[in-house]
Amino acid sequence: MLTSRPNKLAIEPPYKHDANGVRDKHYRLAKLRYKMAKFYYYGAVDRPSADDVEHAAEHFADYEGHPLALGEDEFQGVSETGIPKSH
User: Fold this and answer.
1) Does residue 87 fall inside a structural domain?
2) Residues 6 or more apart from 38 whose CB is under 8 A from it?
3) pLDDT tens for each residue of the chain, 87 residues long
4) β-strand partners of 21
5) What is the residue range of 51's domain?
6) Is 46 in contact with 53 (CB distance < 8 Å)?
7) Domains in the chain: how many in total?
């Protein structure tokens, strides 16, 4: 299930020096880790939690049709980015 795994945590950018002005000896490794995480997870959307899925199911429990009632002529497909072509 999508919600069975935790979301990836955001990594904060590293600081060369701490609050007392002492240089961090692991700064270069932390900087590399931050850049890799930024590259791999930039723009990632968090998965919905189990509570979010249950809440959405409650909204559509009594609804018989499709959640988005569209007319026959309205839907024209979507582009490669997921935006409806009618826009």
Assistant:
1) no
2) 11
3) 556 666 666 678 888 988 888 998 999 999 999 998 888 877 777 777 778 888 878 877 776 666 565 455 566 667 766 666 654
4) none
5) 9-59
6) no
7) 1
Tell me the two tokens of residue 44.
């990632």
Q: Which ranges of 1-87 would DSSP assign to H, the alpha helix? A: 27-41, 50-59
Q: Is residue 31 part of a domain?
A: yes
Instruction: Tell me the whole-structure pTM to 2 decimals.
Output: 0.45
Question: What's the confidence (pLDDT) of residue 29?
Answer: 92
DSSP states along 25-47: TTHHHHHHHHHHHHHHHTTPPPP
Name the token pair of 57: 């199911």
Question: With 0-12 CB in 10 A as exposed, 13-18 as middle and 19+ as buried, what is 9?
Answer: exposed
Assess if residue 42 is contained within a domain: yes
